[in-house]
Specification:
Helix content is 96%, strand content 0%. It has 1 helix and no strands.
Length: 48
């Protein structure tokens, strides 16, 4: 009885892993783009 329970747990973890990984990629991309925007904005502000 323990084996089906562990297989169900591993399946649910693998199913939940991909959306979390996709969300993590989106958050990382937004963070990098925010840093790039801040960098260009400060460079444009201080060069004038």
């Amino acid at each position: 009885m323990n084996q089906p329970e562990t297989s169900k747990k591993s399946q649910s973890v693998s199913d939940e892993g991909s959306p979390k990984f996709g969300r993590l990629l989106i958050v990382l991309f937004l963070a990098v783009s925010l840093i790039v925007i801040i960098t260009f904005a400060t460079e444009a502000y201080y060069t004038n």
